[in-house]
Amino acid sequence: MQEKQLLVLQHIACEGLGSLEDFFKEKRLRCDYRQLSDGDSVPKDLKGYRALILLGGPMNVYEEEKYSYLRQEDELLKIALDMDFPTLGVCLGAQLIAKNLKVPVTQGNQKEIGWYSIDLTHQGKKDPLFHNLPNQFHVFQWHGDTFEIPSKGSHLASSLLFPQQAFRFGRNIYGLQFHVEITEAMIQDWIQAYTEERIDSKKILQETKTFLGDLEKVSRKIYHNLWNIWNSS
Fold first, then answer.
1. pLDDT at 63 over 70
2. Which residue from 69, 116, 121, 122 has the fewest beta carbons nearer than 10 Å?
3. What's the CATH number where 97 sits?
4. Region for residue 190 given its phi and psi (left: phi exceeds 0; alpha: psi -120 to 50; beta: otherwise)
């Protein structure tokens, strides 16, 4: 049987699929990676793909002059949104979805970097993506921008610093501001890659030992829930 193909738009080498890649391999799902920072093109349509994944990155959604591939992503996202195509946006990816749903993406009052707790909203507690999950759990964050919730979207999760942490649009499109896919190796890579950030790297690595194991369990449930949603459409 031919493996089903997923389109993965990756904005920078150090921000990959992480633990999500292991889940896809278990499901025998083949990923078509487009390394945008290396010059790979964004497909003009979604024919032949089962789902679209948009990963994180340090750029802003409105930096199209500097990162021309952002315009190509916008065009593809318009198609995905019109089709209610199975789509997951993480961090920058979620902001790109929000932008294409015509809601503001703006700089927050401060950056949210490290381990933070998030709370499911009333809608989030009922959403199938968070089925059988606690109402509050720790996630890994690395962002300064934030988005508004689309007018026809569902607000699913919030944190103390950034109330808009997750949303659903339609049935199949999800945006997550936080990183469920994170691994310890990725965190170490980000600390080295983003040296301009004023962070307490020792604290982040210590808290990783405390919170990563629980997040991995949460992430597995989210991945299974997401796949069930997409396959029940």
1. yes
2. 122
3. 3.40.50.880
4. alpha
Residue 127 lies in domain: 4-231
Which three-class secondary structure string do you get for 122-142?
Answer: HHHHHCHHHCCCCCEEEEEEE
What is the distance between the terminal CA atoms of the chain, rounded to a whole angstrom? 21
Supply the pTM of this predicted model.
Answer: 0.96
- 205-218: pLDDT as tens digits: 999 999 999 999 99
Active site residues: 91, 179, 181
What Cα–Cα distance (Å) separates residue 227 from each residue in 20, 23, 34, 119, 233? Answer: 11, 10, 21, 22, 10
Number of domains, the chain: 1
Alpha-carbon distance 73 to 88, whole Å? 13
Contact assessment for residue 218 and residue 180, using Cβ atoms and an 8 Å cutoff: yes
Residue percentage of the chain with pLDDT more than 70: 98
Token pair listed for 98: 């929000």
